[in-house]
Design goal:
With 175 residues, the chain is mainly α. The protein has seven helices and two strands; from the N terminus they run H-H-H-H-H-H-E-E-H.
Length: 175
């Protein structure tokens, strides 16, 4: 099967699965670097924005580590989502630190690269966990409007909606 027929490129097939240890290591490296930068903040900024930033980074790191030890399922997804939300807060705090000139442009860019790498790995892990824990109803709820499936593989030449869509339409018509 070639790529035009729907086969994934060779690089996608050989990509290793998300390793929780790698995601935790990314977060750990980001925390170490940010901790060293916060020491250079002015004393008043260090007590306020510096501590808030470090607390948010540590919360994200803790949520990432917690997710690694949870069994696969909804609880792990919730913990990964919490870590992802905390990363967003860290990004906002670092943006404020840059605008207040507690961080140089270069330091801010480096911090954003660290957080981007961590966030990408965290997001990939989160997507993989969502796919593993998706129920048929939940899997279809993210796709709106639903795409019609080609029935050509069944010998028909028309597009037909999936079965669950027809059931939904029938049940809403009876209400």
């Amino acid at each position: 099967m070639n790529r035009a027929q729907g086969e994934a490129p060779a690089a996608d097939r050989s990509r290793p699965p998300i390793a929780p240890a790698a995601v935790i290591e990314e977060g750990y490296q980001a925390w170490l670097w940010l901790d060293a930068r916060v020491e250079g903040f002015a004393a008043s900024a260090r007590r306020h924005i510096g501590h808030r930033t470090l607390d948010a980074v540590l919360d994200a790191l803790a949520a990432t580590a917690e997710a690694a030890y949870l069994p696969r399922g909804e609880r792990r997804v919730l913990e990964l989502e919490a870590a992802n939300r905390r990363l967003t807060i860290v990004r906002l705090l670092l943006r404020g630190a840059r605008e207040r000139r507690y961080l140089s442009v270069g330091q801010h860019e480096h911090a954003m690269r660290l957080l981007e790498s961590w966030g990408r790995q965290l997001g990939g892990w989160l997507r993989a966990e969502r796919r593993r824990t998706a129920t048929p109803e939940r899997a279809h709820s993210r796709r709106w409007p639903p795409r019609a499936r080609c029935a050509a593989t069944r010998g028909e030449h028309t597009l037909v909606p999936p079965e669950w869509w027809t059931r939904r339409a029938q049940s809403s018509a009876t209400r």
